[in-house]
Amino acid sequence: MGAMSSEHPAPSEPVRRAAPLLSGVDWARKPPAHTVTLLGRPGCHLCEDAREIVVPVCEQTGSTYEERDVTGDPELLRDYGEHVPVVFVDGVAWDRLRVDADRLRAVLS
Predict the structure, then answer these.
(1) The whole model's pTM is what?
(2) Residue 21 and residue 8: Cα distance in Å, rounded?
């Protein structure tokens, strides 16, 4: 065995370590909450059923819940009038007519 290479510290020298790659990550911080929007209309029994599912799931996941009445907006009425309820997650149409609580909970978790 020859002499130690000058590229590596001798065993008696302290080894300097680089800062951990993820030293600035706050592991306890929760991901940002989602916004769930339910499009519906008055007298729609499917909209009422969807609300009964969506509201508790939003409460459980810390997500923001908002509801919009399509009859108050001509553009929404044209696009979704007879096809409500429609659930949006963060502005993206996610589900319509029937809402599955487990699927919604999974996308919000």
Answers:
(1) 0.70
(2) 22
